[in-house]
Design goal:
Order of helices and strands: HHHEEEEEHHHHHHHHEHEHHHHH
Helix content: 25-40%
Radius of gyration: 22 Å
Number of strands: 7
Number of helices: 17
Structural class: mainly alpha
Oligomer: single chain
Strand order of the largest sheet: 3-4-5
Strand content: under 5%
Distance between the termini: 44 Å
Shape: globular
């Protein structure tokens, strides 16, 4: 099999690049997938019943929200049109960009969030390393299922602030995974809705109590099916179908050659599932503990505590990347061209960063540009950079971008089940 793949790649210009085995997507029970679809788009999972998973991960915006940094709790509307709820304004922007969900259902994905704080680990409870540590409940089918449900515990994302509701109150008290805690309260809401009770009867067995993990597991099943994207022009060309356009083919040569992109963006889904520091500009509130007042984001180091992991972030898959901007762990770059150009000379791009390209909601925040104006922090980000400058011209840049567009699976972006017209809770659905 390897020689066949290598031969195809050489025929299309990606010399001697072995992409390895094709991604594996487990088969899913249609009833579980359809149930997961309803829960993914149902605001019942949020503390104030006003935000769904789809609010920040919507197909209209490439499974993200089209913003550099999202506005969760305290917002009304969708994507760039989302606005502040004057009766319950947000406290701040989200600290990181809402990541796209393309292909996260493939079995090779075992680390989630920009810093990988949720990842497979056979030594941990349930085989998953999480911020909850030993308090992590068991019963999640996969790391994907576990990650799907952590946003419901975050006040600024889905839980709500302080004691606004029974979920946010449980979160504030630190009652997360314990009996009667935040997750149990959300599960009880779902179980109280007859249509959901009947649907879970069909997949769990009659009157089996609905656990929070059951909700997460069916949402993961929906995610595996709905956001699978492995039938792009690139895939078809690699498997002996129509070749890429001349421009995309030149870009492919650069990607797997001179530009060195495949060093990190490797395999069929263009990710090594590892963490790298590339001097990405830091905008917004940063990632700080409650007692900290800085606007920095040191990335993977916050998980491992290792200084060698400072400013490293998880390599994203590039599938459907043309649809899922802004780009970077904090959405610093609005255009694909801009983020590719950053990779060619990260330190120069960091020091010359133009804040006007960030796409922000209308929230007044003193933290937005603190790091951009902090020469000492810029020096630390620069010192961690792993990439060597590469001299490419504008035509080369255009060719690279053309290749990235060839990674778009238009069938996937069009949707499979799509957004439901209504959900069993009767709450409004963001269309």
């Amino acid at each position: 099999m390897k020689w066949m793949i290598a031969g195809l790649l050489m025929a299309t210009g990606a010399e001697a690049q072995d992409l390895g085995p094709r991604p594996v997507f487990p088969e899913m029970d249609p009833a579980r997938v359809q149930l997961g679809q309803l829960l993914f788009f149902d605001p019942i999972l949020s503390g104030n019943r006003n935000i769904s998973c789809g609010t920040c991960h919507h197909p209209r915006f490439g499974t993200s929200d089209g913003m550099s940094l999202s506005m969760g709790e305290g917002g009304i509307g969708l994507g760039p049109d989302r606005r502040i709820d004057s009766s319950n304004p947000p406290e701040d922007r989200m600290p990181r960009n809402a990541p796209a969900l393309w292909n996260v259902g493939a079995t090779e994905f075992n680390a989630f969030f920009h810093d990988g704080r949720l990842e497979a680990d056979p030594q941990k409870p349930g085989g998953i390393r999480t911020p909850l540590g030993a308090d992590m409940v068991v019963g999640f089918d996969s790391v994907l299922a576990a990650q799907a449900m952590f946003p419901v515990l975050a006040g600024d994302e889905m839980a709500g602030h302080y004691s606004e509701n029974e979920v946010s109150q449980a979160v504030r008290l630190g009652h997360l995974s314990i009996k009667g805690g935040a997750w149990d309260r959300i599960a009880a809401r779902v179980e109280a809705i007859p249509e959901y009770r009947r649907a879970f009867d069909a997949v769990l067995g009659d009157q089996t109590p609905i656990q929070f993990t059951d909700i997460a597991n069916v949402i993961a099943d929906f995610t595996r099916v709905e956001w699978r994207a492995d039938d792009s022009p690139f895939d078809r060309a690699m498997l002996g179908g129509d070749p890429l356009s001349a421009q995309a083919s030149r870009g492919q040569d650069l990607f797997y050659g001179t530009a060195g992109c495949s060093t990190c963006h490797s395999g069929w889904l263009q990710t090594d599932h590892s963490f790298h520091a590339i001097a990405m500009p830091q905008i917004g509130p940063g990632k700080a503990a409650p007692f900290e007042t800085h606007a920095r984001d040191t990335g993977r180091m916050r998980v491992t505590g290792e200084i060698s992991d400072q400013y490293k972030f998880l390599t994203p898959s590039l599938r459907n990347v043309s649809q899922s901007g802004p780009y970077g762990h904090d959405g610093a770059y609005a255009s694909l061209q801009a983020v590719v150009r950053h990779h060619l000379d990260p330190i120069a791009a960091l020091n010359a960063y133009d804040p006007t390209q960030a796409v922000f909601h209308d929230i007044q925040s003193p933290d937005d540009w603190r790091v951009v104006a902090d020469s000492e922090e810029l020096a630390r980000i620069s010192a961690a950079n792993e990439l060597t400058p590469i001299a490419l011209g504008d035509d080369d840049l255009s060719d690279l971008v053309a290749f990235l567009h060839s990674l778009t699976d238009t069938g996937a972006t069009a949707g499979r089940l799509g957004v439901p017209v209504k959900v069993p809770s009767g709450l409004p659905v963001d269309q």
